[in-house]
Amino acid sequence: MSKIKVTIWNEFVHEQEGGALGVLCRQWYPQGIHKYLAGVLAADDLEIRAVSLDMPEQGLPDALIEDTDVLMWWGHVAHSKVDDALVEKLAARVCNGMGFIPMHSAHLSKLFRRLMGTSCTLHWREVGEKERIWTVPRKHPIAAGVPETFTIPHTEMYGEAFDIPDDGKIIFTSWYEGGNVFRSGVTFQRGNGKIFYFSPGHETFPIYHNENVQKVLANAIRWAAPDFRDDSFVSHTPQPLETVYSENPLEKIDTSALHKTL
Amino acid sequence: MSKIKVTIWNEFVHEQEGGALGVLCRQWYPQGIHKYLAGVLAADDLEIRAVSLDMPEQGLPDALIEDTDVLMWWGHVAHSKVDDALVEKLAARVCNGMGFIPMHSAHLSKLFRRLMGTSCTLHWREVGEKERIWTVPRKHPIAAGVPETFTIPHTEMYGEAFDIPDDGKIIFTSWYEGGNVFRSGVTFQRGNGKIFYFSPGHETFPIYHNENVQKVLANAIRWAAPDFRDDSFVSHTPQPLETVYSENPLEKIDTSALHKTL
Amino acid sequence: MSKIKVTIWNEFVHEQEGGALGVLCRQWYPQGIHKYLAGVLAADDLEIRAVSLDMPEQGLPDALIEDTDVLMWWGHVAHSKVDDALVEKLAARVCNGMGFIPMHSAHLSKLFRRLMGTSCTLHWREVGEKERIWTVPRKHPIAAGVPETFTIPHTEMYGEAFDIPDDGKIIFTSWYEGGNVFRSGVTFQRGNGKIFYFSPGHETFPIYHNENVQKVLANAIRWAAPDFRDDSFVSHTPQPLETVYSENPLEKIDTSALHKTL
Amino acid sequence: MSKIKVTIWNEFVHEQEGGALGVLCRQWYPQGIHKYLAGVLAADDLEIRAVSLDMPEQGLPDALIEDTDVLMWWGHVAHSKVDDALVEKLAARVCNGMGFIPMHSAHLSKLFRRLMGTSCTLHWREVGEKERIWTVPRKHPIAAGVPETFTIPHTEMYGEAFDIPDDGKIIFTSWYEGGNVFRSGVTFQRGNGKIFYFSPGHETFPIYHNENVQKVLANAIRWAAPDFRDDSFVSHTPQPLETVYSENPLEKIDTSALHKTL
Hints:
CATH class of the domain at 4-117 and 184-224 in chain A: Alpha Beta
Strand order of the largest sheet of chain A: 2-1-3-4-9-8-7-5-6
Largest sheet of chain A: 9 strands, mixed
Helix content of chain A: 10-25%
Oligomer: homotetramer
CATH architecture of the domain at 4-117 and 184-224 in chain A: 3-Layer(aba) Sandwich
Distance between the termini of chain A: 46 Å
Mean pLDDT of chain A: 91
Order of helices and strands of chain A: EHHEHEHEHEEEEEH
């Protein structure tokens, strides 16, 4: 059985910042969130690559995009730096079967918003309050081995109203000490590609060190991996499949030959 | 009761073309599809504006976008000419409540694809075959007054697989003489905005002259009109709503103040 | 404009009980929850009938069912007393267009479970804790005039995992002091009928005295009222619509005439 | 790896009928549709049991229900003979994880209607016309190895409007020679259980002899098999999870102890 090819993309900005924030961030993720996750998610059935915005072609050359089964994404302050053309390529690759796992503040990444079509805005507050996470379907592969409820002692609050489309299937929902609630784990499908948004995670709170959070991400990779590759769909199919005719058969004309695309 | 403000946008290219196609198109729509639809859809409760790509600001200055309740869209060969910035503005306006009715080949318009997140591709064939349209929900406002089934004698075939998200509610589905089927009328919601895609329509077949097609579009305008205006959503809500504390209350820190957005 | 015909059904058991519970219940609803709601929801565009399980034909004779646009339902300990045949009649009436608003513990009513197809079970706890309710869509007719968030000081907790189908559109979601979350207001459609489940409400806590709860119920009635009546759908349609034939036309046989239904 | 335990239930009436219909049916299914399908679907990873309505406990004793991973169902004229109590047991077993594959005229079976909550009615016509089936998602496990489109030369027509809930994901859609269309393969989830309705199949047309139809059913069994067993969900959870209190802590009362269920 071939390995699932995972690419973890990180904007990798906070980890290299000066000031208090950089210090706090490097305390938990000295080589970056992407390298940290690549380490804790390592497994025999996965081939994991950790890349970042500061690399050539923003870390995602065409050959790597094509060779990726599941793309994980961490971004926060540098969303606008990501090339629009790259976003279009990635969105097309998702529709063609690549799994996509936007994490935490990637709810506002260009790629997630491009795939959702909505603003993806939400309420937020950063006072280090407690979050309690609930599994909503009683059995789901992404929640396998995860307790029905577990807590994160200090987190950034993300709260409803979360502006996402109605086809999101809720896998996790969160309670916050300060009075908010949030659909914190939601799946979507776009074309052949499976998407799982998961909000727990942060640059200074050590949330990716939580074993349940790691378990969810590990499950999500296997869930999002494509069953199939290569969508060889052909749009223009000039021949009718049925040789059926109305009572007064017409002289049929293919007027599409007259069109010029601008 | 105030009127529903409708803006009909047309790329207005085929109608001005030289050659056989232009002649065929002007035969049915001498002043353009937008002007024709503005005429047949005119009603006391509507204020209709017909605009086109060749107008200043591509026909959609900010003041008009803001003043539009329902945007109808016809495009075919000039999708790529529409400014990306305009598309982003319109997508945000839909999420903020504006109704959107992409028609026929607008399935590949930037705006519809931006709101769907998928490729929106489909099978197509242009041999003038018969289309039979079925209403799927037994009662729906968009189908009010329309027969359960009706035909269009000569049409361009649009067939499954249609690459749209799973939250599309099917209002109409089509049968084609040549052996294909298609979800030809589908509703979506993105943010506060209601969307209705309707495939019947064409530049050379006189499909917008069909009274059932006109009835569907007239119904769709009323359905898509927003119940409300002005989404005054505020994302950052720094104060907890509940003054509740864990057993070991923490020194809470608002680290968001440390962030700089690039 | 004709009035919306609303029928409020109540099992009307707790209100007539002896013991502490009966006393607590009658304190808020001396004539029963159904009569109380009929009073506070009274409006010029509504014709409201309050009925109960102890009435002839369990309060719902055929003529009343047929004459009802929106059925509200309160049940708790007497679900099993409701006739199965009545449940089937009501389910068919919903599919034929009647709106249905199951309230609070009606999540386990036969009718709601019949329409959902799932167990409709959930977590629950009754310690009088605080509930905070959030509106999830930023604009929705059921939430019109209701604050984005409001609280109920003492409530029974209903928590996830709530076993309902995936087509539920979340209108409200609740936070509980004790650490749970819940999809507390959810819409569905079954056939032509609109359904709105709303969990706030109780027999001893005075939750139906809350003006926001009343506002939600008032909105829901208008939302659930049918646009149309009379589904005259005919299943057997023996004549083909298209007189089209395969290359080798067949002798077509209507074998359905051979069938006998047992 | 343990085998998937499949139970194929058949009302087994047409096959034992006198008259022309019985002769036509036995021509293709001499031992019954259930025995025929058990033969053609046999595989190393499956343990298949074929049962029928005329067996003790209508073919489905409790021990067999509990031991079934995927239940396939064929019924037509004897729906009303199936015990209501058996239907309730099976519906609960589906919510607890058992896969369910209703076939052809099982759209009107009590169990499918119980799980859908709708009337499940549709248009139908039996003149032996041609059906053309299309795969709607470009890649789906149920369609693996099946051509994008294939035909059945003579079939019973099932046509829209098909009264099913909106959460049905369309896997196959059908075109009929006589002018109708139909969502002929649709998935649902109810609780932990996966459901796949598939309309191709009939008692006298040899549709289960079609290799593509067999491939779809074989795929569907693997798709519907549960990932997990045993839903040990406990509804009443009297202890709060968070020891948090409002500013004015209340004397909390568990009033649930006062309730008596009738």
